[in-house]
Protein backbone atom coordinates (compact mmCIF):
# COMPACT_ATOMS: atom_id res chain seq x y z
CA UNK A 1 0.00 0.00 0.00
CA UNK A 2 2.28 2.78 1.19
CA UNK A 3 6.07 2.72 1.24
CA UNK A 4 6.53 0.63 4.38
CA UNK A 5 9.57 -1.30 3.28
CA UNK A 6 7.66 -4.30 1.96
CA UNK A 7 9.00 -3.80 -1.58
CA UNK A 8 12.53 -3.09 -2.78
CA UNK A 9 13.22 0.62 -2.47
CA UNK A 10 15.95 2.17 -4.61
CA UNK A 11 18.08 4.82 -2.93
CA UNK A 12 17.68 8.28 -4.47
CA UNK A 13 20.71 10.56 -4.53
CA UNK A 14 20.75 13.80 -2.57
CA UNK A 15 22.26 16.78 -4.42
CA UNK A 16 25.50 17.93 -2.79
CA UNK A 17 25.18 21.70 -2.94
CA UNK A 18 27.20 24.08 -0.79
CA UNK A 19 24.90 26.90 -1.81
CA UNK A 20 22.06 27.49 -4.24
CA UNK A 21 22.91 29.07 -7.61
CA UNK A 22 19.79 31.24 -7.25
CA UNK A 23 17.43 31.96 -4.32
CA UNK A 24 14.98 29.55 -5.98
CA UNK A 25 16.40 26.37 -7.53
CA UNK A 26 14.55 23.51 -9.24
CA UNK A 27 15.36 19.84 -9.61
CA UNK A 28 13.39 17.58 -11.98
CA UNK A 29 13.33 13.81 -11.54
CA UNK A 30 11.60 10.89 -13.26
CA UNK A 31 11.47 7.93 -10.86
CA UNK A 32 10.17 4.71 -12.42
CA UNK A 33 10.92 2.69 -9.26
CA UNK A 34 9.90 3.22 -5.67
CA UNK A 35 12.71 5.31 -4.17
CA UNK A 36 13.82 6.68 -0.84
CA UNK A 37 16.51 8.90 0.66
CA UNK A 38 18.40 8.43 3.91
CA UNK A 39 17.51 10.94 6.60
CA UNK A 40 19.16 14.29 5.88
CA UNK A 41 18.64 18.04 6.08
CA UNK A 42 19.29 21.13 3.96
CA UNK A 43 20.35 24.69 4.75
CA UNK A 44 17.31 25.86 2.76
CA UNK A 45 13.61 25.16 2.51
CA UNK A 46 12.60 22.29 0.23
CA UNK A 47 9.24 22.07 -1.47
CA UNK A 48 8.70 18.56 -2.82
CA UNK A 49 5.95 18.12 -5.41
CA UNK A 50 4.85 15.34 -7.75
CA UNK A 51 3.12 15.88 -11.07
CA UNK A 52 2.48 12.14 -11.02
CA UNK A 53 2.80 9.68 -8.15
CA UNK A 54 2.63 10.06 -4.37
CA UNK A 55 5.37 11.45 -2.13
CA UNK A 56 5.87 10.62 1.56
CA UNK A 57 8.09 12.74 3.80
CA UNK A 58 8.97 11.38 7.23
CA UNK A 59 10.35 13.38 10.13
CA UNK A 60 10.70 12.68 13.83
CA UNK A 61 7.37 14.44 14.37
CA UNK A 62 5.26 12.71 11.74
CA UNK A 63 4.58 11.48 8.25
CA UNK A 64 3.42 13.83 5.47
CA UNK A 65 1.81 12.65 2.23
CA UNK A 66 1.45 14.50 -1.07
CA UNK A 67 -0.48 13.03 -3.99
CA UNK A 68 -0.67 15.16 -7.17
CA UNK A 69 -1.95 18.74 -6.66
CA UNK A 70 -0.33 18.83 -3.21
CA UNK A 71 3.22 19.59 -2.10
CA UNK A 72 5.23 19.21 1.10
CA UNK A 73 7.01 22.18 2.67
CA UNK A 74 10.17 21.05 4.49
CA UNK A 75 11.79 23.77 6.63
CA UNK A 76 15.52 24.48 6.48
CA UNK A 77 17.53 22.34 8.87
CA UNK A 78 14.81 19.76 9.49
CA UNK A 79 15.97 16.15 9.25
CA UNK A 80 13.72 14.17 6.91
CA UNK A 81 13.55 11.32 4.43
CA UNK A 82 11.57 11.30 1.18
CA UNK A 83 9.84 8.23 -0.24
CA UNK A 84 8.22 8.11 -3.66
CA UNK A 85 5.78 5.65 -5.20
CA UNK A 86 6.70 3.92 -8.48
CA UNK A 87 6.38 5.99 -11.68
CA UNK A 88 6.70 9.35 -9.97
CA UNK A 89 7.40 12.60 -11.82
CA UNK A 90 8.94 14.68 -9.05
CA UNK A 91 9.76 18.37 -8.89
CA UNK A 92 11.80 19.73 -5.99
CA UNK A 93 12.11 23.44 -5.31
CA UNK A 94 14.85 24.69 -2.99
CA UNK A 95 14.22 28.10 -1.45
CA UNK A 96 16.87 30.21 0.22
CA UNK A 97 15.61 33.08 2.38
CA UNK A 98 18.01 35.55 3.98
CA UNK A 99 15.33 36.15 6.60
CA UNK A 100 14.48 32.58 7.74
CA UNK A 101 12.05 33.91 10.34
CA UNK A 102 9.73 34.71 7.42
CA UNK A 103 9.49 31.02 6.46
CA UNK A 104 6.98 28.65 8.04
CA UNK A 105 8.86 26.67 10.75
CA UNK A 106 6.93 23.40 10.47
CA UNK A 107 6.76 20.61 7.92
CA UNK A 108 3.32 20.69 6.30
CA UNK A 109 1.35 19.66 3.22
CA UNK A 110 0.15 22.45 0.93
CA UNK A 111 -2.60 22.61 -1.65
CA UNK A 112 -1.33 23.46 -5.14
CA UNK A 113 -3.91 25.23 -7.33
CA UNK A 114 -3.87 25.34 -11.14
CA UNK A 115 -1.94 28.62 -11.34
CA UNK A 116 0.77 27.52 -8.90
CA UNK A 117 1.03 24.18 -10.68
CA UNK A 118 1.68 25.90 -14.02
CA UNK A 119 4.17 28.27 -12.40
CA UNK A 120 6.09 25.28 -11.03
CA UNK A 121 6.07 23.62 -14.45
CA UNK A 122 7.30 26.80 -16.15
CA UNK A 123 9.99 27.50 -13.56
CA UNK A 124 11.34 23.96 -13.77
CA UNK A 125 12.05 24.55 -17.49
CA UNK A 126 14.24 27.60 -16.85
CA UNK A 127 18.06 27.55 -16.92
CA UNK A 128 19.64 26.96 -13.50
CA UNK A 129 21.25 30.41 -13.57
CA UNK A 130 18.23 32.31 -14.82
CA UNK A 131 18.28 36.09 -15.12
CA UNK A 132 17.01 37.34 -11.76
CA UNK A 133 16.39 40.85 -13.10
CA UNK A 134 14.41 39.73 -16.18
CA UNK A 135 11.13 37.89 -16.86
CA UNK A 136 12.50 34.65 -15.40
CA UNK A 137 13.26 36.39 -12.12
CA UNK A 138 9.78 37.89 -12.04
CA UNK A 139 8.27 34.43 -12.64
CA UNK A 140 10.32 33.10 -9.69
CA UNK A 141 9.09 35.96 -7.48
CA UNK A 142 5.44 35.28 -8.34
CA UNK A 143 5.94 31.57 -7.67
CA UNK A 144 7.46 32.31 -4.27
CA UNK A 145 4.50 34.53 -3.39
CA UNK A 146 2.09 31.76 -4.38
CA UNK A 147 3.94 29.16 -2.32
CA UNK A 148 3.98 31.34 0.78
CA UNK A 149 0.21 31.87 0.41
CA UNK A 150 -0.69 28.22 -0.36
CA UNK A 151 -3.21 26.70 2.07
CA UNK A 152 -2.29 23.83 4.36
CA UNK A 153 -4.22 20.59 3.83
CA UNK A 154 -4.78 17.73 6.27
CA UNK A 155 -2.54 15.04 4.82
CA UNK A 156 -0.20 14.34 7.71
CA UNK A 157 0.05 11.79 10.48
CA UNK A 158 1.58 12.88 13.80
CA UNK A 159 3.90 10.39 15.45
CA UNK A 160 4.15 9.87 19.24
CA UNK A 161 7.22 10.36 21.40
CA UNK A 162 6.34 7.78 24.07
CA UNK A 163 8.39 4.59 23.37
CA UNK A 164 5.43 2.30 24.00
CA UNK A 165 3.27 4.18 21.52
CA UNK A 166 6.16 4.25 19.05
CA UNK A 167 6.24 0.45 19.15
CA UNK A 168 2.47 0.23 18.67
CA UNK A 169 2.42 2.76 15.81
CA UNK A 170 5.38 1.16 14.07
CA UNK A 171 3.54 -2.16 14.00
CA UNK A 172 0.39 -0.55 12.64
CA UNK A 173 2.40 1.22 9.94
CA UNK A 174 3.68 -2.18 8.82
CA UNK A 175 0.22 -3.79 9.07
CA UNK A 176 -2.48 -1.09 8.93
CA UNK A 177 -5.33 -3.62 8.69
CA UNK A 178 -4.58 -4.87 12.23
CA UNK A 179 -7.95 -4.55 14.00
CA UNK A 180 -6.85 -5.09 17.59
CA UNK A 181 -8.48 -2.81 20.13
CA UNK A 182 -6.54 -0.43 22.33
CA UNK A 183 -7.29 -2.74 25.26
CA UNK A 184 -5.64 -5.64 23.39
CA UNK A 185 -2.61 -3.50 22.64
CA UNK A 186 -2.47 -2.53 26.30
CA UNK A 187 -2.36 -6.18 27.32
CA UNK A 188 0.52 -6.82 24.93
CA UNK A 189 2.46 -3.74 26.03
CA UNK A 190 1.59 -4.20 29.72
CA UNK A 191 -0.04 -0.77 29.87
CA UNK A 192 -3.63 0.02 30.81
CA UNK A 193 -6.05 1.03 28.06
CA UNK A 194 -6.73 4.28 29.91
CA UNK A 195 -3.02 5.16 29.98
CA UNK A 196 -2.57 4.40 26.27
CA UNK A 197 -5.62 6.49 25.43
CA UNK A 198 -4.28 9.44 27.43
CA UNK A 199 -0.83 9.13 25.84
CA UNK A 200 -2.29 9.04 22.33
CA UNK A 201 -4.12 12.31 22.88
CA UNK A 202 -1.09 13.89 24.53
CA UNK A 203 1.41 12.90 21.84
CA UNK A 204 -0.67 13.10 18.65
CA UNK A 205 -3.76 15.16 19.42
CA UNK A 206 -5.84 12.24 18.11
CA UNK A 207 -7.66 9.33 19.65
CA UNK A 208 -6.31 5.87 18.86
CA UNK A 209 -9.20 5.13 16.47
CA UNK A 210 -8.80 8.47 14.68
CA UNK A 211 -5.04 7.97 14.35
CA UNK A 212 -5.43 4.46 12.93
CA UNK A 213 -8.11 5.60 10.51
CA UNK A 214 -5.91 8.43 9.25
CA UNK A 215 -2.99 6.01 8.87
CA UNK A 216 -5.12 3.70 6.76
CA UNK A 217 -6.57 6.44 4.57
CA UNK A 218 -3.23 8.11 3.94
CA UNK A 219 -1.80 4.71 3.05
CA UNK A 220 -4.66 4.26 0.56
CA UNK A 221 -3.60 7.26 -1.52
CA UNK A 222 -0.69 5.51 -3.27
CA UNK A 223 -2.64 2.51 -4.63
CA UNK A 224 -5.63 4.69 -5.49
CA UNK A 225 -3.43 7.12 -7.44
CA UNK A 226 -1.87 4.21 -9.32
CA UNK A 227 -5.31 3.05 -10.45
CA UNK A 228 -6.09 0.13 -8.14
CA UNK A 229 -9.77 -0.63 -7.58
CA UNK A 230 -11.41 1.12 -4.63
CA UNK A 231 -12.80 -2.22 -3.41
CA UNK A 232 -9.36 -3.82 -3.34
CA UNK A 233 -7.83 -0.83 -1.54
CA UNK A 234 -10.64 -0.81 1.01
CA UNK A 235 -9.98 -4.46 1.89
CA UNK A 236 -6.23 -3.84 2.18
CA UNK A 237 -6.97 -0.98 4.57
CA UNK A 238 -9.00 -3.24 6.84
CA UNK A 239 -12.49 -2.05 5.84
CA UNK A 240 -15.24 -4.66 5.55
CA UNK A 241 -17.10 -2.83 2.79
CA UNK A 242 -16.37 -0.38 0.00
CA UNK A 243 -19.14 1.95 1.18
CA UNK A 244 -17.64 2.18 4.68
CA UNK A 245 -14.24 2.99 3.18
CA UNK A 246 -15.66 5.68 0.89
CA UNK A 247 -17.61 7.22 3.78
CA UNK A 248 -14.46 7.35 5.94
CA UNK A 249 -12.46 8.74 3.01
CA UNK A 250 -15.01 11.50 2.43
CA UNK A 251 -15.09 12.35 6.13
CA UNK A 252 -11.28 12.59 6.25
CA UNK A 253 -10.58 14.39 2.97
CA UNK A 254 -13.89 16.05 2.08
CA UNK A 255 -14.26 14.11 -1.18
CA UNK A 256 -14.73 10.58 -2.52
CA UNK A 257 -11.62 8.86 -3.92
CA UNK A 258 -12.72 9.70 -7.48
CA UNK A 259 -13.31 13.37 -6.63
CA UNK A 260 -10.07 13.62 -4.68
CA UNK A 261 -7.87 12.60 -7.60
CA UNK A 262 -9.76 14.61 -10.20
CA UNK A 263 -9.46 17.89 -8.27
Automatic annotation (TrEMBL):
Keywords from the UniProt entry: Activator, DNA-binding, Repressor, Transcription, Transcription regulation
Lineage of producing organism: Bacteria, Pseudomonadati, Pseudomonadota, Gammaproteobacteria, Pseudomonadales
InterPro entries: AraC-bd, Homeodomain-like_sf, HTH_AraC, HTH_AraC-typ_CS, RmlC-like_jellyroll, RmlC_Cupin_sf, Tscrpt_reg_AraC-type_HTH
Start and end residues of each HTH araC/xylS-type domain: 166-263
Protein name stated in the entry: Transcriptional regulator, AraC family
Entry's Gene Ontology molecular function annotations: DNA-binding transcription factor activity; sequence-specific DNA binding
One GO-annotated biological process of the protein: positive regulation of metabolic process
PANTHER family (alphabetical): HTH-TYPE TRANSCRIPTIONAL REGULATOR NIMR, TRANSCRIPTIONAL REGULATOR-RELATED
The keyword DNA damage is annotated on this UniProt entry: no
Gene3D superfamilies the record matches: Homeodomain-like, Jelly Rolls
SUPFAM superfamilies for this protein: Homeodomain-like, RmlC-like cupins
UniProt xrefs under SMART domains: HTH_ARAC
Origin species: Phytopseudomonas punonensis
Signal peptide: none
Amino acid sequence: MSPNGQNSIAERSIPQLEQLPRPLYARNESLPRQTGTPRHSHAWVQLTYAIQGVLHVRTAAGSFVAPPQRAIWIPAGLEHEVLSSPNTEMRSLYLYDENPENAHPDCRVLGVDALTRELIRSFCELPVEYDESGPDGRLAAVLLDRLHAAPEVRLSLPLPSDPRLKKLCSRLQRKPDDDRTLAAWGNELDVSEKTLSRLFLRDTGLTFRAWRQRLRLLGALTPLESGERVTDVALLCGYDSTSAFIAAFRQQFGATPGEFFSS
